[in-house]
Write a structure and sequence with these properties.
The complex is a heterotrimer of chains A (261), B (363) and C (188). Chain A has 261 residues and is an alpha/beta fold. Helices cover 36% and strands 16% of the residues of chain A. Chain A contains ten helices and nine strands. In chain A, strands 2-1-3-4-8-7-9 form a seven-stranded mixed sheet, sandwiched between helices. Chain A has a two-stranded antiparallel ribbon with strand order 5-6. Chain C has a six-stranded mixed sheet with strand order 2-3-1-4-5-6. Chain C contains seven helices and six strands, in the order βαβββαβαβαααα. With 188 residues, chain C is an alpha/beta fold. Classes of the chains: A alpha/beta (261), B alpha/beta (363), C alpha/beta (188). Chains in contact: A-B, B-C.
Chain lengths: 261, 363, 188
């Protein structure tokens, strides 16, 4: 399925029609992630108890995106807010939605500890390799050599490290009941399935669930449609391996899933 | 969910301030505490974690104070009476969630047990967290801050803090200190209902019955605005609300102020030394008065200005370098009362010091 | 109304200074008096001089800390200079007679200075672990803030589980209080 085809799909039922068209830039991956999430929520029939929290950064633009009770929090702090909601009312299904800066930099201690404590929440982290809202600075996920506003000559791994391996880290520190996957907006059906499984994992009370999504930021990448597509389909997966990394009950990590799509 | 009453009737007890807070939170029907260890607050968590399970309450130790504050806000959003406790550098970190509580009118309750600063300072005592607790964070200080002086007040005002938070929907603080945390003295703990104190029930922001967007509008809260005008409108509205409730919330104690040449102004535990000093000075024939704001936000401005209008001099006694004095100067702006300092940053103040200073001033 | 009695106890960590203050405060509270006890709980706790502030009176106590004590007790050499600031012209200053070189450190303006041989009494006649209970007896006798009975009851409620296991311990502790009280009469 092509990007154009996925966009043409009907709106998920849990979307707020009155706030559409949404406010993301043309070509931005957020709309696709939120669509996949919307379908997952529809399929699971949890619109009455799903609670959505969004971070600061471009993700904040989703504060009125769904017909869901929604809190727009501070940069990096969505994980603890959703943790608090879930702890105080375990009947709710908590979804924390954030970018790579929020989850892997300013809020990394919250991600690490929520995963280690096995909080029964679902964290969805959109990885577009830089800080979108603030104007394209380097993120923990920025690729070696990638130019950003704070790495104008390209990211030098010797000075600022290699792209952050989020799901791999979460998989390493979480308990057996955790669900960890990395999806991509380039594979919409698979992404929808990963998000659904993550939510199901929370609903079953198995443990923490975490999905990173490889996404696009043509605005700050300064790429055209073809270049954007090339980035998410070919360049980013060289650093960020797509697939389910940890599945409760599975004997070992299920690699790749390239067959599906 | 019916809860066993943690306190039946009334009981005279002899305990530390941190234990008092845990009992008061139980009596106030607090549901869940989120906390991170820092001295001198720790025993609030220690007592709470021992007592809470017996009464169906909950606790989570978080990874830091940022998380303790934000999980507390999550608890509030879910419609539970959530609270936290912190001090010093923890209070510094806590300012971030506090400012979100202000922006969204979330009734979080925090117990602050002031310790010495700046930085790690001491773990013992101070009144150096006044500015931060009343006006901290990026915002306009739309908070309620009760500064307690005795264990009885710690109990009374912790209960009151939960009520004020859920009634007015401003973040609310009990501003104590390390002395109050660690000292033991007698007090009476009680079941609020038997004293006719109604407990304000919490209310969920999220997870109300029905499907959002189908049976009811979704509950959607944000703290980010696109335009100056949008933000201005929201903040103006909050400020109006705050100004409206301020006279109802503000509390103070005043003694011997009618004919006083000098009024000693103090808050919190220092007010105890101030009152002792004033009584002794009166016995010796000195015309000295006593004024103590119990709420530091909102300040009892009207009463402060009345006292300022009658007396020539204030002696401001505090264990900080003028943090209370700054609030008083703003509150009494335009009054001609001279404001004299007895500032002891991070140090306890004894009645003897207040007496000596007052005598020096009065000659 | 009578002013509260102000007591300061200071010693090395492990000498049981805070326990003595706490037992006295609890005993006073049980006897219907008002007590306020505040430990010095700084980082000094570890490896420093431990100081306890205690006030007992008939009415609710005012400020938790005070400038001069009615009774100041120093149980180690370092505790003497540490507590000197709390000694005024009406203070009874008490120190252990076994502290070496104490004489050079003693405050000058105390109303009365008493040397109490509690350490040697504990070591030679009772047991080192009841050293602080001897001090408890000394303070009971010296200040009268609680009755002998009240002090014993507070001790009992605090150490009941130990006393039940080892009844001889109760006798030892009670004897320590009594001997402590006796020391004051001797030093008087």
């Amino acid at each position: 399925m092509s990007l154009a085809q996925t966009i043409e799909l009907a709106m998920p039922r849990c979307w707020r029609v009155d706030t559409k068209p949404h406010k993301f830039c043309p070509g931005c991956g957020h709309g696709l992630v939120l669509k996949a999430l919307g379908y997952a929520i529809d399929e699971l029939g949890i619109q009455d108890r799903a609670v959505f929290g969004c971070d600061i950064g471009c993700s904040l633009l989703s504060w009125d995106f769904f017909n869901l009770d929604t809190i727009q929090t501070h940069h990096g702090r969505t994980t603890p807010v959703i943790t608090g909601i879930k702890r105080a009312n375990p009947k709710l299904i908590g979804i924390a939605y954030m970018g790579d800066g929020g989850g892997y930099a300013i809020g990394s201690q919250h991600l690490v500890n929520a995963a280690a404590r096995d909080e029964k929440i679902t964290v969805i982290l959109v990885n577009n390799t830089q800080y979108g809202m603030t104007g394209g600075q380097m993120a923990p996920t920025t690729l070696p050599g990638q130019k950003t506003e704070t790495t104008p000559y390209g990211r030098d791994p010797e000075k600022t490290g290699f792209p952050f391996q989020g799901p791999e880290m979460v998989a390493a520190i979480s308990r057996a009941g955790a669900y960890v996957a990395r999806g991509t907006v380039a594979n919409f059906r698979q992404l929808q399935r990963f998000l659904k499984r993550a939510l199901e994992n929370q609903m079953a009370g198995n443990g923490f669930s975490f999905v990173e999504v490889i996404s696009a930021c043509p605005t700050n990448w300064r790429t055209n449609a073809e270049e954007t597509w090339n980035m998410i389909e070919h360049v980013l997966p060289q650093y960020f391996k797509v697939g389910e990394i940890k599945v409760p009950g599975a004997p070992a990590a299920q690699e790749g899933e390239k067959k599906d799509g | 969910m019916p809860k066993d009453k943690p306190i039946e009737g009334e009981k005279r007890v002899f305990m530390t301030g941190n234990e008092v807070v845990a009992w008061a939170a139980l009596a106030a029907d607090a549901d869940i505490m989120f906390g991170y260890p820092i001295t001198p607050q720790n025993e609030i968590m220690h007592y709470w974690t021992r007592l809470a399970p017996k009464f169906g309450r909950d606790f989570l130790q978080t990874e830091d104070e940022l998380s303790a504050g934000f999980t507390t806000l999550g608890g509030v959003l879910a419609g539970r009476k959530a609270f936290t406790a912190t001090a010093g550098p923890g209070n510094t970190l806590m300012q971030e969630p506090m400012s979100m509580a202000e922006a969204m009118r979330l009734p979080m309750v925090a117990i602050i047990t002031q310790r010495g600063g700046p930085s790690t300072g001491t773990v013992i005592y101070s009144q150096q967290e006044v500015t931060m607790t009343t006006l901290g964070g990026n915002g306009e200080g739309m908070r309620i801050v009760y500064s307690t002086a005795t264990h009885q007040e710690l109990f009374d005002y912790t209960i009151k803090a939960f009520n004020a938070a859920w009634k007015y929907r401003f973040p609310t603080f009990v501003l104590g200190d390390g002395y109050q945390s660690k000292m033991r003295e007698s007090l009476t703990i009680y079941d609020p209902a038997e004293r006719g104190i109604a407990i304000v029930p919490p209310e969920p922001y999220f997870g109300k019955p029905g499907v959002p967007g189908v049976d009811r509008p979704p509950s959607q809260l944000r703290n980010t605005y696109n335009m100056e005008e949008e933000l201005y409108e929201v903040v103006e509205h909050y400020l109006e609300d705050y100004a409206k409730v301020a006279p109802e919330v503000a509390e103070y104690h005043a003694h011997y102020v009618d004919d006083a040449d000098l009024v000693v102004v103090a808050h919190g535990v220092v007010a105890r030394a101030a009152l002792m000093a004033v009584k002794e000075l009166r016995e010796d024939g000195y015309k000295v008065g006593y004024f103590r704001p119990v709420t530091l936000r909102p300040l009892p401005e009207k009463e402060l200005r009345e006292v300022a209008g009658r007396t020539k001099k204030f002696l401001v006694a505090e264990s900080a370098n003028g943090q209370l004095a700054r609030l008083l100067k703003e509150g009494a702006y335009g009054c001609t009362t001279e404001m004299l300092p007895l500032f002891r940053p991070g140090m306890g103040i004894t009645p003897e010091e207040v007496i000596a200073e007052a005598k020096k001033i009065l000659g | 109304m009578a002013k509260p009695v102000k007591i300061i106890l200071a010693g090395e960590g492990g000498q049981g200074v805070q326990s003595v203050a706490e037992i006295l405060a609890e005993a006073a509270n049980e006897e219907g008096k008002e007590a306020l006890y505040i430990p010095n709980f700084g980082v000094e706790q570890r490896g420093g001089v431990s100081v306890a502030f205690l006030q007992v009176g008939d009415e609710h106590i005012g400020a938790p800390k005070f400038q001069t004590g009615d009774v100041v007790v120093a149980l180690s050499r370092r505790a003497i200079p540490r507590t000197r600031q709390y000694v005024g012209k009406d203070t009874i200053f008490l120190y252990d007679a076994n502290i070496e070189g104490a004489e050079q450190e003693l405050p000058r303006h105390a109303k009365k200075i008493l040397a109490i041989p509690a350490i040697s009494l504990a070591k030679n006649e009772l047991h080192p672990r009841v050293f602080n209970v001897i001090i408890l007896g000394v303070i009971v006798k010296l200040t009268g803030v609680v009755s002998e009975e009240g002090a014993k009851k507070a001790l009992e409620s605090r150490l009941k589980y130990k006393f039940d296991k080892e009844p001889a311990l109760r006798e030892l502790n009670y004897k320590a209080i009594e001997r402590g009280m006796g020391l004051v009469a001797d030093a008087g």
